[in-house]
Structures are given as C-alpha cells and as structure tokens.
C-alpha cells in the first residue's frame, strides 16, 4: 500500500539531481567560454600594444618627409601598374582614340614619316586659306599625301578662353568642312599659352600617330613638302634628333619689353638663351615626342615655345642638328620653308 508514494519520491529526487547536474555543466561551460574570451581579449590587447610600440619605433627612425615620399612613391607605383595594365589591354584590342576620323584611324595604323602641326589661331583664316592654295593639299589629296608620302598635315589650334563662344564655333564649322584641324580641347588658345600649346600638340600627335618625326610650323610659313620629306629621311639613323635652324638669343628682363622673360634670372649673368631651334619650323624624332608625353607634368615652359622645347632637350642625349634648310627667314634654293 505504501510502495507507490516512495517510488514517486525517488523519481522526483532523481529528476532534481539530473537538473542540478545539467545546471552545473552549463555553468562550467559558460565559465570556460568566458575564460577563453577573456584570454583572447588579453592577447589582442597585448598584440595591439606591441604593434603600437613597434610602429612608434619605426616612425621615430623615419622622418615625416621620408614617410611622405615613400607613400607618394607607392601611390605612383600603383597608378603606373594600373596604367600599364590598361595600356596593354588597349593595345591587345587594337585601341584607336575615338577622336580620330576614319582617315586618321587608317593613317595611325601604319608608320608615317612625319606629322606636321601648322600652328594657327583665331582670326587667321586668310592665312590658312593661303596655305591650302599654296602647299597644303585639301580633300582627297590630303589623304593621298598621307598614304603615299607618309606625311600628315593639320592646323593646330586650342579652344577659346570663353569655351563654346563664336570663335570656337567658327573653328568647328571650318574643321567640319576642311577636315584638316587638330583641335586641342584641353588647351586655351592665347599668345601667352603658346609654349603650353606646343607641348599639348606634341603629346596629342605622338599619342595618335606613329611617325618618325613630329614637326611644328607657323601659319605664316610656306613649306616644300618634298624637300621636307627628303631632309627628314636623311636623318632617320638619328634616333633622338632635334632638327631646325639653331640659334641663341638675348634674354630680356624688362617687363615692358615685347620678348620679356619672367624667368630671366635662371639663364645666368650673360642673359642668353641656350641653343635651340627657331620657332618658325623645327622637327623632333619620335623618341623626343614620347619623352614630352611621358614627362608632361614636370616639363617647365618659358615665355617662348621654341626656348621651352630647346630647354627640355639640353640635358638629354639628343642630336642637335643645325639644318640650314629650316631657316625660313633666309630663303635660298633648296630650302624647306620661307616666311611670308
């Protein structure tokens, strides 16, 4: 009669013991996990402290200037690597800049002898028309010149300081009709900007056409294309050629002078420019044009475009060729050019 109640009490006692054991196990597990987390946290704090100590030691050994130089160098390396990969991918795909016309795309795929930039400006349409009538072919004949003789001729001009005004529209309209312009969109067209315009042209030309030479000529000069081609061909064995009517000249330090040079003091007490080609017309080989393109951001320009280009080559292993045929102001039989 009393056996069932005692059995119930035993079952209840066993249940309580099981619950107690489970609670103890859970508590021990929680303590263990908390201990591990606390140990990990201590280890992380220790590691952070050690890193801070070592970082402070490293920083004390390297100056701020050196640190900035290292950071800048690494950033440049990253940019260079990215650009090299993009360039390789573009070359693999046969990349041709979208700004080129169909004829220019065809010309850019083959090796040319020369790309000639005829430097012009706003309000000089009469000069351009005179050149088109005298020595610069138009229409299909212009493309034929590129195909048969490997010579590209283009008028080079920048953009108006008031971008998109009537001056820009006139050039755009003329360019659509004649298709003989290189419009330097990122370059302001102004007399004081001529040195930068010269740099922009060489950069544009070497990046868009693969030629042996890149030539700059003013729009008041008449050129004999056949003699130019023959003369340039004679110097093909000079990989870094700078060809022109070489000269020097006085550096003017008076601000009121027409040819004032703001950086006159850099040219020494004699106040004389280093030897350079006359700005009326000169040619540089592909290697020099590439040099300008690569170093565009650090090449200093002076008051005059011919002095600027000459200053860039003075410290390089460049062959300065004083070619009398490039002396446009003193025409003689067999000359390449004549100033008008």
UniProtKB/TrEMBL annotation:
<dbReference type="GO" id="GO:0008378">
    <property type="term" value="F:galactosyltransferase activity"/>
</dbReference>
<keyword id="KW-0472">Membrane</keyword>
<comment type="pathway">
    <text>Protein modification; protein glycosylation.</text>
</comment>
<feature type="domain" description="DUF4094">
    <location>
        <begin position="15"/>
        <end position="92"/>
    </location>
</feature>
<keyword id="KW-0808">Transferase</keyword>
<comment type="similarity">
    <text>Belongs to the glycosyltransferase 31 family.</text>
</comment>
<dbReference type="Pfam" id="PF13334">
    <property type="entry name" value="DUF4094"/>
</dbReference>
<dbReference type="GO" id="GO:0000139">
    <property type="term" value="C:Golgi membrane"/>
</dbReference>
<keyword id="KW-0735">Signal-anchor</keyword>
<keyword id="KW-0328">Glycosyltransferase</keyword>
<keyword id="KW-1133">Transmembrane helix</keyword>
<dbReference type="InterPro" id="IPR025298">
    <property type="entry name" value="DUF4094"/>
</dbReference>
<dbReference type="InterPro" id="IPR002659">
    <property type="entry name" value="Glyco_trans_31"/>
</dbReference>
<keyword id="KW-0464">Manganese</keyword>
<keyword id="KW-0333">Golgi apparatus</keyword>
<dbReference type="Pfam" id="PF01762">
    <property type="entry name" value="Galactosyl_T"/>
</dbReference>
<protein>
    <recommendedName>
        <fullName>Hexosyltransferase</fullName>
        <ecNumber>2.4.1.-</ecNumber>
    </recommendedName>
</protein>
<keyword id="KW-0812">Transmembrane</keyword>
């Amino acid at each position: 009669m009393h056996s069932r109640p005692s059995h119930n009490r035993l079952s209840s006692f066993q249940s309580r013991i099981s619950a107690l054991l489970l609670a103890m196990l859970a508590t021990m597990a929680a303590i263990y996990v908390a201990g591990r987390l606390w140990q990990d946290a201590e280890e992380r704090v220790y590691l952070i402290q050690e890193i801070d100590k070592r970082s402070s030691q490293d920083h004390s050994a390297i100056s701020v200037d050196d640190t900035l130089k290292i950071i800048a160098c690494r950033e440049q390396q990253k940019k260079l690597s990215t650009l090299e990969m993009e360039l390789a991918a573009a070359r693999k795909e046969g990349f041709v800049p979208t700004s080129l016309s169909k004829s220019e795309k065809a010309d850019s795929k083959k090796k040319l002898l020369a790309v000639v930039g005829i430097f012009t400006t706003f309000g000089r349409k009469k000069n351009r028309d005179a050149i088109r009538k005298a020595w610069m072919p138009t229409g299909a004949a212009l493309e034929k010149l590129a195909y048969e003789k490997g010579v590209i001729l283009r008028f080079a001009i920048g953009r108006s300081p008031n971008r998109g005004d009537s001056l820009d529209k006139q050039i755009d309209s003329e360019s659509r009709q004649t298709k003989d312009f290189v419009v330097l969109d990122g370059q302001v067209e102004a007399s004081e900007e001529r040195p930068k315009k010269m740099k922009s042209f060489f950069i544009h030309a070497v990046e868009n056409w693969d030629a042996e030479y890149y030539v700059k000529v003013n729009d008041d000069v008449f050129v004999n294309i056949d003699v130019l081609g023959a003369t340039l061909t004679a110097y093909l064995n000079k990989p870094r050629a700078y060809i022109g009517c070489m000269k020097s000249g006085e550096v003017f330090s008076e601000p009121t002078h027409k040819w004032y040079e703001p950086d006159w003091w850099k040219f020494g007490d004699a106040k004389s420019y280093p030897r350079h080609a006359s700005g009326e017309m000169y040619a540089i080989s592909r290697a020099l044009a590439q040099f300008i393109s690569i170093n565009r951001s650090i090449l200093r320009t002076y008051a005059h475009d011919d002095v600027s280009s000459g200053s860039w080559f003075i410290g390089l292993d460049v062959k300065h060729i004083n070619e009398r045929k490039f002396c446009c102001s003193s025409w003689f039989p067999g000359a390449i050019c004549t100033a008008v």
